[in-house]
Write a structure and sequence with these properties.
With about 260 residues, the chain is an alpha/beta fold. It has a single domain, classed as Rossmann fold (3-Layer(aba) Sandwich), CATH 3.40.50. Helix content is about 30%, strand content about 25%. It contains 8 helices and 10 strands. It has helices spanning about 45-50, 100-105, 115-120, 125-135, 150-165, 180-195, 210-215, 240-245; strands at about 5-10, 20-30, 35-40, 60-65, 70, 85, 170, 200-205, 220-225, 225-230. The chain has a 6-stranded mixed β-sheet, with helices on both faces. A 4-stranded antiparallel β-sheet has the order 2-1-4-5, covered by helices on one side. β4 and β5 (about 70) form a beta hairpin. α2 (about 100-105) packs parallel to α5, α4 (about 125-135) packs across α5 and α5 (about 150-165) packs parallel to α6. The protein binds adenosine-5'-triphosphate. Adenosine-5'-triphosphate binds near residues 16, 41 and 46. The site of adenosine-5'-triphosphate has 13 residues, from α1. Keywords: ATP-binding, Nucleotide-binding.
């Protein structure tokens, strides 16, 4: 089995950050795995996903994504960018554009630079975008403007855009945080099912251990920038997840414990 992500002794502090955001993180994820990151607020989940997406610099350690080493001082080469798709917690959609246009934006990295600049997709790009819309159950919304959609519909658009990119690795930062439990299950089923159908690897963060259990084959627990457990889902003990959240640090100045 090939390796999608390999991390050895990764350490990172955000500029101006008072504590390390990632400390001595090591892990290997095989191609085709669906893996969930669990952990309380501030555990380092977003930081890890952003780093794997090539958006952070100045870290220490060794990281390779889809067989290519990441450089802590340089963004990844443009040619490799489309292979990694990212689903942002806040969707990052173009609000005044149509759903189809937003999903076609996922194709930009696969187009010749001039075509991408002109925003003129090939029929092939349109086919792929429409397939992604259908797979996400929103083909009927293609011509709607994003700013007229509900949160759940936007979430699906964000996933369709990611799928249209035809990524080999899908990174998703709390992709269902804005959804009710039923919709959240549907959307995670969609994300992990689409990844599996395409032979892609999926790594997503979540605050919902029950959903992580249902849709990930493996669960990584993080706390204070460190991995505290990394187990196949079938071996995850309730006590391990409870401890992950129970021991959350008090929120500074609030007198309250952070809850997720
Ligand atoms: N831009 C930033 N500048 C300084 N520190 C940051 C920045 N972003 C995150 N941090 C710090 O890095 C640590 C990890 O934060 P991160 O956002 O990765 O956690 P998280 O597990 O994704 O939390 P959440 O579940 O709330 O999204 C925290 O201590 C946080 O305060």
């Amino acid at each position: 089995m090939t390796t999608a992500i390999r991390i050895d002794d990764l350490n990172f502090a955000h500029p101006g950050g008072s504590v390390p955001a990632l400390e001595r993180v090591s892990l290997t994820i095989s191609t085709g795995e669906s893996v969930a990151l669990l952990g309380p607020s501030g555990a380092g989940k977003t930081t890890l996903l952003a780093l794997l997406d090539g958006r952070l610099h100045g870290w220490r350690g060794r990281v390779s994504v889809l067989g290519a080493p990441l450089d802590p001082d340089q963004p990844p080469p443009r040619a490799s960018r489309p292979d990694t798709g990212f689903v942002f917690q806040e969707f990052a959609l173009v609000e005044r554009s149509t759903v189809l246009r937003n999903v076609l934006n996922g194709r930009l990295g696969r187009m010749a630079p001039l075509r991408a600049l002109l925003g003129s997709p090939r029929p092939h790009d349109l086919d792929i975008a429409r397939t992604a819309l259908t797979d996400c159950g929103i083909a009927d919304l293609a011509e709607r403007r994003v700013d007229s959609l509900s949160g759940g519909q936007r979430q699906r658009v964000a996933i369709a855009r990611c799928l249209a990119q035809e990524p080999r690795l899908i990174l998703a930062d709390e992709p269902v945080s804005n959804l009710d439990p039923t919709r959240a299950g549907e959307v995670l089923a969609l994300l992990t099912g689409a990844a599996q159908a395409r032979g892609a690897t999926a790594l997503f963060s979540s605050h919902q251990p029950d959903l992580a259990r249902r849709f990930a084959q493996r669960i990584i627990g993080m706390r204070n920038g460190r991995i505290v457990f990394d187990v196949p889902t079938s071996e995850l003990q309730d006590e391990a997840t409870a401890a992950l959240y129970r021991e959350a640090e008090p929120m500074p100045g609030s007198g309250l414990r952070a809850v997720s």
